[in-house]
Amino acid sequence: MRVLVYSNPPDFFSPWQKTGTQASSGSGVIIDGHRVLTNAHVVSDAVGIEVKRAGSGEQFEAEASYIGHDCDLALLTVADEHFFEGAKPLALGDLPGVNEDVQTYGFPVGGETLSVTSGVISRIEVGTYTHSKEHLLIAQIDAPINPGNSGGPVVRDGAVVGISMQMLEAAESVGYMVPAPVVRHFLDDVADAKYDGFPHLGARLQPVESPALRESIGLNPRQSGGLVTRVDFGSPAFGQLARGDVIVSIGGYPVAGDLTVAMPGNGRVSLDAVISAQQVGAKLEMSVLRGGNLRDVEVQLADTAPLVPGRRLGEEPEYLVFGGAVFQPLTGEYFDLYDQVPPKLAAYSESGGVVTAERRQVVILSTVLPSPVGRGYLDWESVVVRNVNGVALRDLAHLADLVDNTTDKYLRLETEDGFVMILSVEAARQAGPRILEKYGIAFDRSENLRKPPH
């Protein structure tokens, strides 16, 4: 079926406002329970959704009931039961093996009727989902996934084995689908009427393929695993794993030196697939080598946010305006503003950084709105703020608290590269209402940072 969407996404250059309504379309498939399955990016920031079955001239209003941005999946409901009359829902099947035939169904641009293409599964691995920057199981198919195809079913033997998701722009006829195991995880998750997301371990691992490295960390010739190089504060691994540990097995699967495991049905894939296959709250067992001794470790998985998430955590962007300076937490969506990521942010775009007790978000000064208060800083853009009045910045809420409660004459902001911004606190507070009015800003901060009235 075709999914027609009117969306009004936020403007990350001016996070207090929207970019304006725009129309787009994607595809979807009817599954059991009078539900429509499609991509999250098809209906993201939607203000109106309509669906139209293949061969029908009638459109029906739909509503997104669950959106999993991390796995790029969404479930739609249609209140008008006439939409489902005579429709046979497709069942969810198992992921085919590499080189097995599949068919893709959808409504790509260039026509109004249903398009069907054939291809084969050419690769199964853990890859990056463009919409969320998450690393989840992904399947590559040698059939084109063009704009409009997104959200359509990939079918084998009459069952849905994946959902068309994205294409590789640098190659011809290389598309990617959300594979059946990820779709099943999403559907099982929302069965309790609540979407929890995909879990994270919160530890970064290094391959141990170097013989010298293997010997230095105490691995014998028949042992292998992944070397823990960092553990994020507050993550499931925090307090359970430590820097220098070697994860020898995870979820019962031996870990190879290249950080892969052999999973039935998926072949050899990154060990991240073992973690993401679990539901949030599940307990995952690992065998860990520490100080030359093997020990069993059990970790309760959770959906913990990385230092730089792929998408904003709430429905609307977080922001704070003070003295014309606009502050935001860094997310993958902010990177999308640029054709080339600014060099000062590139390290965060690649590694995500480490969550610590002292730092939960990367706070950036995204721009300075012209006003007398900000004179001398109007060319500042996309800089990382590390300290405010000598205090290491934890997150945007921490910055708002410092701004609201400071009794100092000046607000001194130090950037990651050592530059300093000095703002007169009194002048910034007095100019605040004029700056907001001049630039059409209703509030000096996003809703999540506003204090409830007493």
Structure description:
This protein is mainly beta. The chain folds into 3 domains: 1-194, Thrombin, subunit H; 203-300, PDZ domain (Pdz3 Domain), CATH 2.30.42.10; 320-449, Alpha-Beta Barrel (N-terminal domain of MutM-like DNA repair proteins), CATH 3.20.190.20. The chain contains 8 helices and 28 strands. It has helices at residues 40-43, 180-189, 211-216, 272-276, 332-335, 343-351, 396-405, 425-438; strands at 2-7, 22-27, 29-31, 35-38, 46-52, 60-68, 73-77, 101-106, 115-128, 135-141, 153-156, 159-167, 175-179, 203-207, 226-231, 246-250, 253-254, 260-263, 267-270, 283-290, 293-300, 320-322, 325-329, 363-368, 383-388, 391-392, 410-415, 420-424. The protein has a 7-stranded antiparallel β-sheet. It is flat, with a radius of gyration of 24 Å. The mean pLDDT is 93.
